[in-house]
Amino acid sequence: MPDRLSPLDASFLYAEHDTTAMHVGGVMTFEPREGFDVDALVALIGRRLGLVPRYRQKVREVPGRLGLPVWVDDPEFDLAYHVRRSALAAPGTEEVLHELVGRLLSRRLDRSRPLWEIYLVEGLADGRLAVVTKTHHAMVDGLASVDIGAVLLDLTPEPRETPDDEWRPAREPWGLELAASAVLDTMRRPQLALDVTGRILGDVRYAATAVGRTVEAALDTGRTAARTRPVHPLNAVTGSQRRYGTARTPLAEHRAVRRAHGGTVNDVVLAVVAGGLRRWMISRGEPLTHHTTVRALVPVSVRARSGASGSGAGNSISAYFVDLPVAEEDPVARLAAVRGAMEAHKRGGRAVGAARLIGLVGLAPPVVHSLAARLTSQYSSRLYNVLITNVPGPPRPLYALGARMADMFPVVPLAGGQAVAIGVTSYDGAMHYGLTADRDAMPDVAVLAAALRDSLAELVATIP
Fold first, then answer.
1. What is the pLDDT of residues 439-462, one digit of tens each?
2. Which amino acids are annotated catalytic?
3. Which of 168, 327, 349, 437 gets the highest tally of CB atoms within 10 A of its CB?
4. Which residues are in the O-acyltransferase WSD1 C-terminal domain (predicted)?
5. Measured over all CA atoms, what is the biggest interatomic distance in the chain, rounded to whole angstroms?
6. pTM
7. How far is it, in rounded angstroms, from Cα 217 to Cα 355?
């Protein structure tokens, strides 16, 4: 049977268009070390590619869109196409690196090949090397995208042994075979849906509760769309070109704020973003009234709950809508408001209902599913104003060919009508904020990055 994309994974393919590239990734920098160079990294990637089999597979559409797309081995896989080299002009500042990253993020991945690219960037100050990764969101969600580092990274300076890779591509199926398989899946779909529902819900009583939550989630989404208004300058006409910004902050300070005021580290992250957006909007002269809020879409991975694991697990994501009180002057009050909103979501179980809605959409014909995904991306500013993802990363240092990784900044995709998307990843005692922005709508992305650091300092100053 073909390895068919899940409805959610397929939606990331359908949502992509000329001005909306749907790839995630990261920007990693490494400390200098003898023997750590571009040639050695290319060789390492080649040896370890067997650890992520999906990286040698491409997407095939089913003729007539009779079913969701499938993953197939790429018989013409070319490692040299996916691993590329670049160099910065002297003196190799962070600003020059960010400019390069923005240009790399602007280009969509080639659908006729496996959906990933790695750029090895030389010429950073102090002899450092940067690695920029791009992976299509259809392949992996935020939590699993951290695990993709298994291709390069080790827990110790001594590289681990890599088993021999004797990969041979499977025969690529013919179009008629894909169509026939899709028809059979469609014929079996009602019974399969009942089987899956039975396994998930367990009994009729729980099923009734789940259906009620799903309906409530649908109604809540409708009410959210009705209440949400575009926020200038966060929602604007956007193009295909990107800028990139970063903010490196101490994880210990986030934890200290949490201990002092309660909540979770994720609550502190959202409060930091709220304060940063407030400072940035004020710097632009934007009027803030008592009722001004910014609605954030906060994805939550449910992989641990569902038991999904491994590189083939794909996406398993739910999400919350959270109103960020950017008009609130008191940083502690901002944190309290965010904490209350997140606790209300968790008590209400709305994220579970929203996740089940995705499954219901998957029962619709793929053509309708494609249209729905495109419309969701096209009109995202009517549902939310900014995307914020927070994915925990490794708490200890990691290495590639013995070189210590200094930083690991995330890259998240930018939906249509969104000026900026903010990804957050913890690593080795630091909290790394990565900002993907539209080049024309947000020329001052560096100002927002600095505002995030100032917002955290403001919260730290409130600790007794």
1. 999 999 999 999 999 999 999 999
2. 137
3. 437
4. 314-459
5. 69
6. 0.85
7. 9
